[in-house]
Amino acid sequence: MGLLHYNANRLLRIMSTTFSWNIVNLERHTADGVVFTVHYNVDAEDGTYSAGVYGSLGLEAPEPDSMMPFDSLTEEVVVSWVKDKFGDEKVAEIEAALQAQLDEKHALSKASGVPWS
Known about the structure:
Number of helices: 1
Distance between the termini: 40 Å
Largest sheet: 3 strands, antiparallel
Order of helices and strands: EEEEEH
Helix content: 25-40%
Number of strands: 5
Strand order of the largest sheet: 3-4-5
Strand content: 35-45%
Mean pLDDT: 89
Radius of gyration: 19 Å
């Protein structure tokens, strides 16, 4: 995703946003290593500003023949589980919300404070 932005010199530049999905923690059953909850962060960065969101997602137990040993899991595998469970529409919604936060930081439409010192 990109953002069109006018800087002080009125030059148009296109800023590209990078989204990073990271796994913060996994909850699992100790008896069999089956992961039942994933805690994740999604971070957005455009070179000037950043935004992020934290969440957790419950998982159903996998079929026994498709179970991966806990010690063999990688962050990429677990991120794919999260994105697959959410589906493309929800992933796009999360990333769009983060992009909206970055856009707001570039073109403030709200402020707070008082006019006196």
